[in-house]
Specification:
heterotrimer, A mainly alpha (about 300), B alpha/beta (about 850), C alpha+beta (about 220), A: mainly alpha, C: alpha+beta, four-stranded mixed β-sheet, two-stranded antiparallel ribbon
């Protein structure tokens, strides 16, 4: 007669970590939902694509590789931009987001993307576009876009796990690392074995920095405040535990590590690079997902 | 951002009375285009909270109107099989057919014995109807006394013992602290001022001001939640052990500290009455009045002999009267108290001895014995201490002694119906200026107060137990029951047979009671009532309707009701206990009735007319309101509906102001201060020494012996019929053992009124945001030791194999020996989908045997020994 | 120009949820949407633990995180201190929601509008009329506005917010224990300033640095 208890338990005591007991809302650390749950998932993807697009563009600057520029520019604007729009409640009004660059990180991001779009286009169509001026300007813009997602999150003081100083370095290195991987694959596909092999030194270096930044982020967040610590704990429990283990442990760290060791010294292989890229992308998505999903607000009482 | 569109052709506020719980706060409803959209309190009224305040569930009352699950036509059971889990196979029928069916059935019963009809009444859905009139209605059929009423919502968890002593001590239905002047309040299993209990929001408003003023409020309760959570100090106590602490405090006052209000004891209690060796009063041979000893004249006199000054009456000593040794009953009383030490009380109650002592000390220190206060030029004794109880502490087999012990400490310091003390909730109603209907208590035999109005029966004078029983409740024998427990008990057939109740119940007729699930063991309730033809007027098909209902008639909710009488008795049941003006509200319809629903009073009248007893009912109304004006009296043969009757009664009650009052929706007039603090203005005495219980016992034992009623086999504890407030273990404690080692208790959540509010989506939504409302609470440490954590689903099982499921929520503020369940959840009726599956049902765990009821007042034992295990 | 603020007397509050439900009726809020809530918690250990009850609503911060985060200027602090949302300008990016350390904002989208108080049984007359009387715009963020329309209408009639029902927020009016006091923080002689001074009013989590206009006393 009381089988409905199970429903009530589901509502009031969700065990899978997907929600919060309603009576604990803002009484114990309470998870942010808007920027990851339901339509919020678009934001996760949008940040990711903006980042890897800009990462590819950035790395392409060093190799004066135009296809990389074009593809990076497209990924950032088309994939990143469109998905951003899908996320908005009133996309038709998106132009209004340029109104508050003085206070809003989001608004600043729109300006940067706008400038990136215009300047990037100019660089691509300008003969001899890979000149120092363009490269420096676009390099900076790329770094800003790479870090845009995390910067937007970083300014939110209410969420200590995002508000930590190590977030930005982590995001920049991850953008560069993924961008580098994309570029390496592009070279591999176009049969440029020498360049691919030469890039491997950097791959190892970026991977190492990336790995250290991750450790630093986890360690720094754990020690920054009780609330931030609760975020890290959330990553280690419930449904997020699997993502942490597989997404971060295996895909973001273990697989790239093994592949990097196999290709150590520049003995690169197109297929392995492709495998590593897939793994790195999935790992990066997992880290972003975890950081967004596990962020909690500090209780009010 | 409110956009008034062209489509809005009506936007108005209607004054009415809230009907979500029995408190009856003033309420006004915003109606837009005929749709009720918002409810607030009425700022001008003292009936309710501060300003336009109203509590959450009151505000949520809108949903009663909007609920699509409301029944819209009479429903008839077509499946002859009854029981929980059986589909009644309802068929919609026409009103005329339904009413004919009822009338035919009733006429047939009336030819034999009208007492075969049981009526259900008040505190079932909400107190949104006339309060007293269903009793007159039953009387019109020839039903005797209060013995044929069964109640649903509050059921026998409610205040039989409290009402009994409220009536005997205060001439009132219940009690409240005098928030305005008190300094030190003790609450025993009561949430007065913190959300529930009578006049809940009125008390809450007064209490809020008092705590702001800085009073101390000490709460004895198994959990520190609604009352305890807001107290100055919460003291964890085991359910049903309040009397032990109360008696220890009384002992401290009398025998250790020795500071009492002696003048009060001599003037306002029966402590000076002389008793014989057998404990009964020595009475005057002619007048039959109890006697007192005048120490100045050295003579025994009648208690009301004006030649004896109060201060000269003896509280101690031994005297001769007509060759017999007599002594004031205070003498054995004082001696009796000596056994109740604080250490003893601490052992029983789990309240530390030092705490009990601290409270006792605080009590006497704050009582300011001998002090006076002048308010508006009038001087009264000032006793700013108050000790109040209600449902929690009195709901045990020792209920009457619990209440007596808690009242005793107030008696000893004279803190009864004086500024700062415990007030009756209230006892007096003056007529509206220019109108009629005045209710003041009178003084009855032995100087005991007789309440002016009392539901069901008058607590005084006590009628002697008599045989044979003439009604289902056998209140001929159990004379102190406000509402009787007998119809609910498993042994009802044996009791009826032995005590000479020949008729068997054949019909139940009443208002949306949910008595199958809201009292005790569900199976016993089904067994006891399923053979009756059960007719209920209800908003939804509730659990009782679904299990055993035969005919369910659609009733209107309070929002559609035109009920002039809803709060005429407000002085008695909804008014402010404090010194502030009277307010009496009408219930005015704010929307049209849903479907074919009809107000139950009109249905009652229609049925009475068909059965042929309407004239009797009308005559009772004339009599109750004392209508002398022939034009206003309802004449024989007249058939008036409830609204038409109201036109007459209101004219009588409010005179020329009738129209004005109907227009504004409420009446207000001045309450004289002496009517609040009446104790020293009415020459009456509190029967603190419960001498009448000696006679009751003798009479009952005689009847039991003659009839062969084996009360010992049924474990009915006749020792509780003692004049001295004493300690008796509640039945639930006796059941504790190694396996069943926890006491389950229930408490009222501020969001809920019995089980009806579970169907309200607004309330449901916020209930899910509350940690304890829909869950079973366990002390955090205890839960951990036993391996339970938040969200675990557990079974609670009693000694009789009855079990209920629930969700664990741990809390620090709960005694480690108890488990708490709020309200009446665990619902399953298909007619109330929002309520379905919410919370857990505590009531079903209570065994329905006679031994689990207070042998004097008929209270349920509302704690139960249980074991818990994971489901 | 006044700066509207509120004092919540925690000592008086009995957690009846009147504010929460009255607010829902005032603004015709769909299921699951709350501009007012009551937080119920516990501190300490048995037997000296205490129950914590905090009614919460938008704090109308003068240094509001939501205003800072809003990229369009839709969320702004009015001259009278009320943090308002211009639903013509809101793009629905929810940066304000994520930024609010008090979590007082709700995204109004199809998920919200499709909800029914009696699930699966259709919307009630009240829900239907509410959508006309108090329309919210899809894809925008909504929150407590201190009942600014009540304040404005009332003041037009010459009434005083905080004193007169028709010029005061619904949650203030409904509180049965007078635990909510509304008034002008800029007026040194106002009742709320007196209470904040005398009873040492505290903002909830002052350390967030947003300067709430809601104070708590106990």
């Amino acid at each position: 007669m009381n089988d409905k208890h199970q429903d009530l338990v589901q509502t009031m005591f969700p065990s899978d970590g997907s929600g919060i007991k309603p009576y604990e809302w803002m009484i114990s650390p309470t998870r942010q939902r808007q920027w990851i749950d339901e339509k919020g998932i678009f934001l996760w993807l949008a940040f990711f694509f903006s980042e890897i697009g800009a990462g590819l563009y950035f790395m392409s600057l060093f190799y004066s590789y135009k296809p990389g520029l074009v593809l990076g520019w497209l990924i950032t604007l088309v994939l990143g931009g469109v998905i951003h729009m899908l996320y908005l409640g009133n996309p038709k009004r998106a132009w209004r987001m340029i109104m508050k660059p003085n206070t809003s990180e989001l608004s600043r991001g729109i300006w940067i993307i706008g400038i990136f779009a215009a300047m990037g286009f100019l660089q691509m169509v300008t003969p001899g576009g890979f000149n120092a001026v363009f490269n420096v300007i676009m390099g900076i813009l790329c770094l800003l876009i790479i870090s845009h997602g995390f910067a937007t999150m970083n300014v939110i003081k209410a969420l200590p796990a995002w508000n930590s100083t190590i977030v930005l370095p982590l995001s920049i290195i991850s953008g560069i690392w993924v961008g580098h991987q994309l570029l390496q694959l592009m070279f591999a596909l176009s049969g440029n074995a020498a360049v691919v092999s030469g890039m491997e030194v950097w791959a190892a270096a970026f991977f190492l920095i990336y790995f250290l930044c991750m450790l630093l982020y986890a360690w720094g967040t754990w020690h920054s405040s009780e609330t931030a610590k609760a975020s890290v704990k959330r990553m280690m429990a419930g449904e997020l535990k699997q993502i942490t283990h597989v997404g971060v442990g295996v895909l973001a760290i273990l697989v790239p590590l093994i592949l990097t060791l196999i290709m150590w010294g520049g003995s690169t292989n197109g297929f392995l690079i492709f495998l590593r890229l897939v793994s790195v992308c999935a790992g990066d998505l997992a880290i972003r997902y975890l950081i967004m999903k596990s962020a909690v607000y500090r209780p009010l009482i | 951002m409110t956009y008034k569109t062209d489509e809005i052709w009506e936007d108005k506020w209607v004054n009415t009375t809230c009907g979500v719980c029995y408190c009856g706060c003033g309420a006004k409803v915003r109606v837009v285009n005929g749709v009720p959209v918002k409810i607030e309190g009425i700022k001008e009224s003292t009936m309710g909270g501060t300003g336009a305040g109203l509590c959450g569930k009151g505000v949520a009352g809108l949903m009663y109107y909007h609920d699509p699950n409301r029944i819209k036509k009479p429903l008839l059971r077509t499946n002859p099989e009854k029981g929980i889990g059986v589909d009644p196979k309802w068929k919609e029928i026409e009103w005329d057919e339904a009413l004919d069916m009822i009338a035919t059935k009733m006429k047939k019963i009336m030819e034999d014995d009208p007492n075969k009809i049981l009526f259900t009444n008040q505190t079932m859905r909400a107190s949104d109807g006339p309060h007293n009139h269903p009793y007159f209605y039953a009387q019109a059929y020839g039903v005797k006394n209060n013995g044929n009423f069964i109640i649903g919502g509050g059921s026998l968890h409610c205040g039989n013992a409290c009402h009994m002593l409220g009536g005997l001590i205060h001439g009132a239905w219940s009690i409240a602290p005098d928030w305005r002047y008190t300094k030190y309040v003790l609450k025993w299993g009561s949430s007065k001022g913190t959300g529930s209990g009578h006049s809940a929001m009125t008390n809450a408003r007064l209490r809020a001001d008092a705590v702001r003023r800085g009073i101390k409020e000490i709460v004895f309760d198994p959990m520190g939640n609604f009352a305890g959570g807001k107290a100055t100090e919460w003291l964890a106590i085991l359910p049903g052990t309040d009397a032990a602490v109360g008696l220890a405090i009384a002992n401290y006052i009398v025998n250790i500290r020795g500071e009492m209000d002696e003048l009060y004891l001599k003037a306002k209690t029966n402590f000076v009455y002389l008793i014989k060796d057998d404990g009964t009063y020595m009475r005057h041979e002619k007048s039959d009045k109890p006697l007192v000893y005048d120490t100045k004249d050295g003579k025994v006199k009648e208690y009301d002999d004006t030649s004896a000054a109060w201060e000269d009456l003896a509280l101690d000593g031994e005297y001769e009267y007509n060759g017999e040794t007599v002594r004031p009953c205070f003498v054995p009383f004082k001696e009796h108290l000596k056994q109740f030490t604080v250490e003893w009380a601490a052992d029983i109650s789990t309240v530390p001895a030092a705490k009990i002592l601290e409270v006792a000390k605080g009590w006497v220190d704050n009582a300011q014995i001998g002090s006076t206060i002048t308010i508006e030029g009038k001087t009264f004794p000032y006793r700013p201490v108050s000790s109040v109880t209600f449902r929690g502490s009195q709901g045990h087999t020792n209920g009457i002694h619990q209440v007596a012990a808690i009242d005793l400490m107030a008696q000893l310091v004279g803190a009864e119906d004086v500024p700062g003390g415990t007030l009756g909730w209230p006892a007096i109603r003056r007529a509206y200026p220019g109108g009629h209907y005045e209710q003041t208590c009178t003084v009855g035999t032995d100087g005991v107060i007789v309440p002016s109005v009392f539901y069901s029966h008058d607590p005084w004078p006590v009628h002697a137990p008599s045989y044979p029983a003439t009604n289902m409740g056998c209140v001929d024998i159990w004379t102190h029951c406000t509402l009787s427990h007998i119809p609910y008990v498993n042994e009802v057939d044996y009791i009826h047979e032995k005590l000479g109740m020949k008729s068997k119940p054949e019909m139940i007729f009443g208002i949306s009671a949910n008595f199958v699930i809201s009292n005790s063991d569900w199976d016993v309730a089904v067994k006891n009532f399923k053979d009756c033809f059960v007719v209920q007027m209800d908003l939804w098909v509730n659990e009782t309707d679904q299990a055993i209902g035969d005919l369910i008639l659609p009733d209107v909710s309070y929002l559609e009701k035109d009920c002039w009488s809803s709060e005429i008795d407000a002085f008695f049941f909804s008014g402010s206990p404090s010194y502030e003006d009277w307010y009496v509200h009408l219930q005015q319809p704010v929307a049209k009735p849903i479907g074919e629903s009809r107000f139950f009073m009109d249905v009652y009248i229609d049925v009475a007319n068909r059965v042929g007893v309407l004239d009797k009912f009308n005559a009772k109304l004339n009599d109750y309101y004392g209508i002398k004006d022939p034009e206003l009296q309802i004449k024989p043969g007249e058939v008036l509906d409830w609204k038409q009757i109201g036109e007459r009664v209101l004219k009588w009650v409010y005179g020329d102001d009738k129209e004005k009052i109907q227009k504004q929706g409420y009446a207000t007039w001045h309450k004289p201060i002496e009517d609040v603090y009446w104790r020293w203005n009415i020459d009456s005495r509190c029967p603190v020494y419960m001498e009448y219980l000696i006679h009751d016992r003798r009479n009952m034992e005689k009847i039991f012996e003659e009839t062969g009623f084996d009360y010992k086999k049924l474990e009915m504890d006749m020792d509780q019929y003692t004049p001295l407030p004493s300690w008796f273990w509640p039945e639930s404690h006796k059941d504790l053992d190694n396996e069943f080692d926890l006491l389950a208790f229930s408490y009222r959540d501020i969001l809920h009124t019995n089980n009806t509010t579970f169907q309200n989506p607004y309330v449901d939504e916020v209930s899910q945001m509350c940690p304890y409302t829909f869950t079973i609470t366990l002390n955090t440490t205890m839960a951990k030791q036993r391996g339970f954590k938040d969200g675990d689903i557990i079974w609670i099982e009693n000694k009789y194999g009855v079990k209920e499921k629930g969700i664990v929520k741990t809390m620090q503020a709960q005694s480690p020996k108890v488990i708490g369940i709020a309200g009446q959840g665990g619902l399953w009726a298909d007619g109330r989908p929002v309520a379905k599956g919410k919370g857990s049902n505590f009531c079903k765990l209570l065994p329905s045997k006679l031994k689990y009821f207070d042998p004097v007042a008929g209270n349920m034992e509302t704690a139960v020994a249980v074991k818990i295990y994971k489901a | 120009m006044p700066r509207w603020g509120m004092v919540i007397d925690v000592k008086r509050c009995i957690a009846c949820w009147g504010c929460t439900i009255a607010c829902k009726e005032e603004h015709f809020l769909p299921p699951g949407v709350f501009f007012n809530r009551v937080l119920i918690g516990e501190s300490g250990k048995f037997p000296t633990s205490s129950k914590l009850i905090y009614p919460i609503l938008c704090n109308h911060c003068s240094d509001a995180a939501c205003v800072e985060a809003c990229p369009t200027g839709a969320t702004y602090v009015r001259e009278d201190g009320i943090v308002a949302i211009d639903d013509e300008k809101c793009v629905g990016c929810r940066a304000c929601m994520v930024s609010c350390p008090y979590q007082q904002r709700t995204y109004y989208d199809e998920n919200v509008t499709k909800r029914e108080y009696f699930p699966g049984q259709g919307k009630t007359e009240m829900e239907i009329i509410g959508e006309k009387l108090y329309p919210f715009k899809l894809g925008t963020v909504i929150k407590c506005n201190f009942c600014s329309e009540r304040l404005e209408d009332g003041m037009k009639k010459g009434l005083t917010p905080g004193k007169d029902e028709d010029a005061s927020p619904a949650c203030v009016n409904i509180c049965p224990v007078g635990a909510r006091i509304f008034g002008d923080l800029d007026d040194p002689s106002s009742e709320i300033n007196r209470l904040i001074m005398e009873k040492k009013g505290k903002q909830l989590r002052k350390e967030f640095g947003t300067e709430p206009a809601v104070y708590y006393i106990d």
